[in-house]
Amino acid sequence: MMQVIVDGLVAASFVSLGVVGVSLIYNILNFPSFAQGDYLTIGGYMSLIVVLLLGTAGSIMGLQFGWPLILAAFCAILLTGLIAELLDRTIFGTLRRGGSSRITLIMASFGVALMLRNLIVIFFGPDPTYYVFAIQPALHLWGGARITQNEIVVLAVTVVLVMGLHLFLTRTKLGKSMRAVSENPSLARVNGIDVDNVIRWTWFIGSFLAAIAGTLFGLANGLQPYFGFELLLPMFAALIVGGVTNIYGAILGAVLIGIAESLTVKFLAAEYRQAVSFIAVILVLMVRPQGLLGEKE
What pLDDT, on a 0 to 100 scale, did the predictor assign at position 292? Predict the structure, then answer.
């Protein structure tokens, strides 16, 4: 059972970092962005470009990566952020200023997702690739569970980022402004909050976390053009299970979905893993439509 929990938490790490972006965009821009999963893919492949240019992922303290991959992750954050900002200015921003409906924005995000996914296939091909090709030995934990050093790094970075996000939203002026805009954009604008600036930072923070999640996924599992798309369903399931209006609920939902999928792999088969997300969403909508920590709109 310990192995199930470990695997579930590792899987939840990628989902939780991705779903925060979905939650922020939904609450501030009032539409669910289906391109968020592909921002994870873009982030992972942006890191790969830098690693290929440097010729190695490096090595530090016995890990299978070092400063080259860390530098690659920072470059991926900037590049993914620029892509997200460019797409917002040219597509989503234009639609918002034109008074487009929510369904129009949703369909636009579908189009952006397809475009990004196919660009990755065009430039990198459909085959899996890796930052490091060496097989990493697993460390033995209590209860017979095993975990690799890369997975420990994934868990540690996720915890640090979630704690940092909490401090950002509760202690900084920009974080408080984002919370105000999510509650009432019109009232926030009247009170002197630069809503356009908040929107720009929303896209950047969402793409920042996506780039880190994509890089961590590549470190733990390798890269392939559709991994962000495959994480999209668990991300939206986590959002609905935890509560669409609550970022912390979305993170809790990611943990629950991750462990549920890990249980499915252990006792049934990996092919049924995606079905768990559907079942979880249906059950929560039937019992508590606003999610575990969400509020009725």
Answer: 86
